[in-house]
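Sat 14:20. Reprocessing the chain from the morning session after the first attempt stalled halfway. Input below, unchanged.
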Amino acid sequence: MKVAVRISVALAAIALAGCAYGANGGAIGETGLVQVLSSTSLPEPASHDTTGAPRAYTIGPNDVLIVDVFGIETMENRELAVDGAGRISFPLAGSIDAAGRSPDEVAVLIADRLRAGYVRDPRVSVNVKEAVSQVVTVDGQVMQPGHYPVRADMSLTRAIASARGLAEFAKQDEVIVLRTVNGQRYAGVYNLAAIRRGNYADPAIYANDVVIVGDSPALRRMKDALTLVPALTSPLIYLLNGNI
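Finished this time. Tokens:
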């Protein structure tokens, strides 16, 4: 079943350079920066599309670290998992904000904490045992925007669930997935409510994809109305225009 595609002003503002063609080679619309394809799904990325360019590694949630304080037996070869908030806990050093820092930077933080009152001239090393290098970015109207690990069975609904679900003003029929395949940028627009109803399959999500959940102005207007005119003694009935 073909996905009904809507290109909004927000999507048109995204700079998708050049023209793109689907598996059947047929374009069903073009708006300068955006060309709408008649394909049923986004193309799958190649291996080089998901690995990204080499870069200095920064620690993130769910990484597993090996911390060594040389010469102190109880602090050697300690395996620590970074929690969902990006922190680790190390004896005598307490809680350390590790996310966004390199292993060397975390080693310096631990050494400073130990040196402050417990260990003289500590020699600390931090190495990454398990790196979560395969991530999807989830942004827009979700509860917790951010980067999340991509599992083998990652789908659009699971990616949104990783971000703690939809936020208050989420526009379920305007969920955009951005993907780069062989240097070409693609965008798919999905209706999350239709996926949940089983109208079409929950699309697969791959490393380096960007998921953006749209914002519903109608829901914002309704909240404003409820704030101004609360239902004090009787229910309030609203006539909706179908755009929520």
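Residues 202 and 211 are 13 Å apart (CA to CA).
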